[in-house]
Amino acid sequence: MQFAIVGEHAAMQAVNDCVLSHLTDIGQKRGKPLVLFHTGPPGHGKTELAKQLARAITEDADDYLLIPVGGLRDDADLWGSALGGGGFGSMESDGKLTSFLRQKQGKRCVVVLDEFEKLRGLASALGWGQDKKMYQTFLQVWQEGKLTDFGSGGTCVSDNNTRGKEIDCSQAIFVCTTNEGQDKIIEFAEENHERVYGKCGSDDVDWIQSKFVRKYKEEVLMKFFESVSPELQALVRRINLVVPFLPFTEDERHVVSDLEIRNVLSRWRDPPTEKRGIGNIVVHHTAGLVDLVAQGYAPMEGASSLIGEAQRVAQKASAAYYNGKLEQATEDGHSRKVCWLHTLEDDPDTVTVSLKEPPARSRVAQTATQCHAKDAKVAAPEENEPEVSAPMPSVPDEFSF
Q1: How far is CA 105 from the centre of its chain?
Q2: Which has more confidence, 401 or 71?
Q3: Regarding the domain delimited by 250-375, which CATH topology (the fold level of the hierarchy) does it fall under?
Q4: Which of 34-48, 73-87, 297-311 has the lowest mean pLDDT?
């Protein structure tokens, strides 16, 4: 998992320890699913870590279900119209979650409820006791490891075969992601920077749980469920692990910035298409450009803020392409025009495009940026794309694709 996530060493260590414990004989004998809460500001890998967890511990790709809670129309979309009743879902709906748990019962699987806090808005819109019923169904699944299958209430095939039977949910792992209380997580990270960042071990994870998570459960999660109904605070006691995701360090911002610049520019190597009018160009970028993009990081937005900055600076290269400024550029061995996207040496906030390799910014900056890539775990590069390597005796003057 560490090769697909930038930073978040404490979160990965916590999830690793908890999941391994759950998969032991002791964990399996409890007969209950594992419930994780990934919490923190958006754009820091909460959903991605859940996806990588599923890849690591399940057999098939379809053993993973992602439910964007914000897209649910009513509770029938989750549990089916026999349990639901808000009226917006199909009257013969089986429910995404019910259907998935029925198909995967007794088999290890991962369910991600993305932006779980948005259930509160859904619950307030339902009324007539449906809000409590929806949460109590979660409580049954999380507490007892089973779900009573009422079928769809319509003519679904499942009605004849499964109605009234219990679905075994004990092998499922539920991951709820939430931004609730993100300001508290950012404040905690700033106050305890030396302890919470870096390559955290189990002792550091235990320290974070004792110093922050217990307080977070009381001040954030308990209040969240109490706002729906006081008795639903029992759901908090069924959460096996709360995993705080921390803002990026300066090193990690540079890694994400470099990756996002690559993601934008690497697509232009291929020939143009009807949807993408730009192509057959190779755009190199320098460490100075990475520094500039990294400055646009916003903790409350995470990687999204860096994606926006990467797209903004890349517009310089696309404008040069459409304005015909690259026609005089040299070509590589594949008949692709070659140019450099970089900042000016005397004005590091200005982005420009050159047809020749620009003067290198200080080698200190180059080495620092490469150190960022070494310290933070980075996803493997695409085929034929060189990696961002650790500092070597001879440091290159720029990053290239």
Answers
A1: 26
A2: 71
A3: Helicase, Ruva Protein; domain 3 (1.10.8)
A4: 73-87
- Reported confidence tier of residue 381, pLDDT bands at 50, 70, 90: very low
- Residue 356 DSSP code: S
Coil/strand/helix, residue 84: coil
Eight-state DSSP code of residue 18: H
Residue indicated by tokens 């954030």: 220
pLDDT at 201: 74
**Tokens, residue 245:** 């995701």
The count of other CB atoms within 10 Å of the CB of residue 203 is 8
Domain with CATH 1.10.8.60 in the chain: 250-375
Which residues are bridge partners to 171 per DSSP? none
For residues 302 and 290, is the Cβ–Cβ distance under 8 A? no
According to the model, what pLDDT value does residue 126 have? Answer: 62
- In 3D space, the residue among 305, 298, 286, 294 whose CA is nearest the CA of residue 253 turns out to be 294
Average pLDDT, integer, range 368-385: 42
Instruction: Give the Cα separation of 12 and 5 in Å (integer).
Output: 9
The whole-angstrom distance between residue 278's C-alpha and the CA centroid of its chain comes to 29
- Classified by CATH at the fold level, domain 9-244 comes out as Rossmann fold (3.40.50)
In 3D space, the residue among 97, 88, 96 whose CA is nearest the CA of residue 142 turns out to be: 97
**Are 58 and 317 spatial neighbours (Cβ–Cβ below 8 Å)?**
no
* CB-side neighbour CA atoms (13 Å) of 80: 24
Burial class (CB in 10 A: 0-12, 13-18, 19+), 161: exposed
Strand partners, 178: 39
Residue at token pair 């007794």: 106
Residues of the chain with CATH 3.40.50: 9-244
List, in sequence order, every residue forming a beta bridge with 285; answer none if it has no partner. Answer: 341, 399
Sequence-separated (6 or more) residues with CB below 8 Å from residue 346: none
**What is the model's pLDDT at position 313?**
93
124 Cβ contact list (under 8 Å, min separation 6) = 131
Closest CA to 367 of 345, 387, 397: 397
Q: What is the DSSP letter of 69?
A: G
Q: Rounded to 10 degrees, what is the CA torsion of 268, 274, 277, 279?
A: 30
